[in-house]
Amino acid sequence: MNSAKHMGLYENLTRNVPDAMALMSHGFLRRRSSDPMSHSLQKDTITCLQSWVWFSQRVSAHNDELVHALRALVQPTITALCDNELYEGAVELLSEILSNYSGFLTDEHYESVFSLFETQWSHERYQRLVQGDFDFDSVQFGQLMIALGDSKVEDLIHGVDARSSRFIAHLRGLLSAQGYPVSEDKIFVPALEFWSTYVETLTDCIYSEEEGSKEWVSTATSHVLEAISTVWQRIAYPPASVLADWDSVDRAGFGDARKDVADLLQSTFTVTGPPLISTFANLTLQSLSPNSSSDLEAATFCLGSLADCVTGDARCDESLRAVFSSPLFDLLRTSGSSMPGRTRQTCISLIERYSDYFERETQSLPAALNLLFSVLADPLLAGPAAKSILQLCSSSRSILASEASAFLSQYEGIAAQSQLDCLAVERIMGAIAAVIQAVPDESTKFDHINFLLSFVQKDARLSMHLLSLPRLQSDASGSGTDIHRCPTLGDPSELPLHMALKALRCLIGIGKGLQAPGDVPFDLDSEKDIPATDSSSRLGHLQSGIMSMIVQLQRAFPQSDEISESICTIFRSGFSESDAGPFVFPPGLVCDYLTEQTPQTPRIGYFVNTACSFLSSLRNMKSGDVDEVRTKLLRWVITLLQQQPEPDNDVELAQNGIEFTNRLISREPASLFRPDCLPLTEFFFIYALRILDGREPLPKAAAADFWATFMALKPADATIDHAIAQLGPLLAQSIVRNIGGTASRSELDRLSEPLKKMVSNQAKARNWLEQALSDPSFPSQQLAGDEKAVFLKKIMKWSSWSEGYQSGGARLLACCARLKLRLCLVKSMFENMESKRQCLNSPPAFLLHPEMTPSNDAQHCGSRNEK
């Protein structure tokens, strides 16, 4: 506030300080007056004081005289709290000071506020609040308590005196106010936030202070545990009849409050350790009676929220064993309608959260899986049960491998009933595939995979059959077809596509399940060549069947974005694998399939993105056919870009096409300069320059990354060296245009990278930038030549600047701001767009053919600008 910019205002205000203090002091002295206007005057005095307090806070170097004068008026404000007429303004001011400017208050002020909460007035206010009075003034009282607790939280943690304990007890009592949290109880969430702050501060105090006497730790920890014992029951869901009356805001707020409680429990575990798990394990067991379903849901939710705290830790296994070997599973299996669905869902999810426990305690695994499969028929439980099955089977696959046949038989019975939704089916198939992946015998493994795929083939055939029907009847018996029923299906006419997507998503689930576990060591430096798959082998037969389904379904639904996305995801599931498998297709087959896609293919940009991932997977191959695959993909990608009416016509394709080429040249620069690719390469360079001059942020960022990579290339042959020499001036012009005004401020950081690489790696960078700054397209009439020279000098220093000093974009923006380079060049940019468009259709041959290069580069640049 007292900066040079506002110095005049600051001086005027400081001259008024004595008068303002005198007026406010007089206003507070009128408190004893019987004049009816005295209350109005005192209200205005408190409002005026509030403004002066915030003024003192905003003064960059605090005015001690002003602060001292204002502090003298705090005590009357505290006293005004007990006056109903003045309460609202006083409580608002004090709460804001405690929350945002606590250093303003002195020890005497804090003593007065703490003493106030010991009075009869405070006791009456507090009782009204916790008994369900959530009027505005009552909630303000609770917020004042919380603000005081927040500002003195460390003192409260270290305090073992009676008054501190009483105040902490009152703060804990705010957690147990009458009414449902959020919907009725408006103080629960603020109180919960205080206790989260209390626990986090307690943790910091415990681990940051030197070893010694810490008698306060046990007292503070006991306060936390008492708060936890209060709060866990408050997050139990109300009866369905009550919940139905809540609006969406109350529902979302209650859900957020439950998450806040989970966060509080996780923070508390840092202080208490395993005993907290034991506490909620015991509460879960105590809530198994038929009439305690609400407490059971809350206890299991809290126990589940602590799962991440004990991952891989066997210290809590005894407590967990007591829960999972209790009658809980039998109760879930037989309770049916007697137990609320939400309670059953939370209990089922508990199994998934503690999947690592079942890895250690294998004797509990069969009972858990039997329970999960038994409740799949319940629509409310199918989702969480399938998710838990997937987690258990994935984490315990080696233990369950011998039971693969039993899993397949179990699923066969489930599939015959056609009761599961598609997501649950996808998860269960993924779970069974994970178990099959651990089967050691290859022949047995292929038998199991073939059997599992037969369910997918059935869905694919059903989809094709339904598509061939003249019309679909809403009644399954009407068509004589076993129609799949899924809650996500709306219009029966969408059933063919729905079944096709189900088949493809099941393939996704199987592909992910068959992936090697993430904890298996892998040698990144090895060059392991996956042997070619014989089409007549069992593996080749499986791959042929999968590819046949993919091709048929894509042809049947050629306009579906979801079909395209699912197919790409299926391919991706095999890219990360280092061993042969049903979804590790031969590179040539993947390449052929991708390059068959045309601009009319839905989400063609996503197919190109899949090709980017495919490039990375080629690291597992020896150099044999890799070059051929890379070249074929490159020609396909650039041809797709060439077929677009405008560079930004398909943003996704533009971005991924440039990223593909960038990834390719970063691995194998020579791939871009093969003789048979040169015409396409020339087109791509001009295309990438146009994108860099464009407006779409994502393709533009990809183009900036590409040019940064390109400028950092080490010339391996004359062609690369010549291409850099010819493209450098064009790139410099594009970058300077962006700096001049085309790019937004947020894009400058990304655009600085190619400029930095140019300056650091190319000897001719200064000449290129000089030409760009003096180019007729640059508005030189608004920027003097010496300013351009200073700007260029700053830029050329980048190569010696420390990388950690500032980000490139920040440095670039600083230079631009100082030299007034942020000029509007949109008009001049579009004046040159026509010549660029002609370059797209007929790329200049001189770029990559040295023998056709004009003898004078400057003359060539001038001719382009003239054009």
What would your notes on this structure say?
By secondary structure, the protein is mainly alpha-helical. Among the domains are: 106 residues; 149 residues; 122 residues; 206 residues, no CATH class. The chain is 67% helix and 0% strand. It has 45 helices and no strands. The radius of gyration is 35 Å and the shape is flat. The two termini are 55 Å apart.
Over all CA atoms, what is the radius of gyration? 35 Å
The biggest sheet amounts to:
none
Number of separate helices = 45
Bin the strand percentage.
Answer: under 5%
**Total E-strand runs:** 0
Low-confidence stretches: 475-481, 801-809, 817-846, 849-867
Give me the secondary-structure category. Answer: mainly alpha
Question: What number is the mean pLDDT?
Answer: 85
Spatial shape: flat
Helix content: 55-70%
Tell me the distance between the termini: 55 Å
InterPro entries: ARM-like (IPR011989), ARM-type_fold (IPR016024), Importin_beta-like_NTR (IPR051345)
Protein name: Importin 13
Main location: nucleus
Subcellular location: Nucleus
